[in-house]
Amino acid sequence: MSFVPTLCVGCWRVQLASLAEARDARLTCKACDAPCRIAPGRSYSAAEQEGFMELSGIVAEARLTPREARGYGGEAERALWSSIYVPLLERLSVRMPGLLPHQIAAGKNTVAQRSIVTTLKTVCDALATAPTGSAQYPIAALATRARATRQ
Ligand SMILES: [Zn+2]
After folding, report:
1. Which pTM does this prediction carry?
2. 25: domain range?
3. Based on the number of CB atoms within 10 Å of its own CB, is 143 exposed (0-12), middle (13-18) or buried (19 or more)?
4. Is residue 65 part of a domain?
5. What are the tens digits of pLDDT across the range 26-58?
6. What is the Å distance from ligand 1's center to 30 Cα?
7. Would you say residue 44 lies in a domain?
8. Residue ranges near ligand 1 (ion) with Cβ within 5 Å
């Protein structure tokens, strides 16, 4: 079974939905029950689902602004082109400390590094499409209350 990335319009979490679920027009978020829409990106296998959800959760905790999400999506794309992942992973681990164990686990394994960067790109690209009044506010805060970021 394959899964496609979706973006919740309520809590802005990026989740995977099976193709059967994705065909359902009433696709809803597993966390908050709000409607979800399909996000661009490749499809994932059942074996990749757990890793995807974990990385997506780490990004959600970091409450990126749409501008950050767009920036990181672009940097991830460049890293995938150049096949040099460590500098980006190191920088992202500072902004999103939850990534550190993943970066350490990947070590010098470029296949593992590439897999992390690919998933982060999918999550960031999806978050970058979140409609918002201001690129300055964290995406997740829209569901609760707007909060200024340190920028
Ligand atoms: Zn949600």
Report:
1. 0.83
2. 2-143
3. middle
4. yes
5. 889 988 999 998 988 889 999 999 999 999 999
6. 7
7. yes
8. 8, 10-11, 29, 31-32, 34
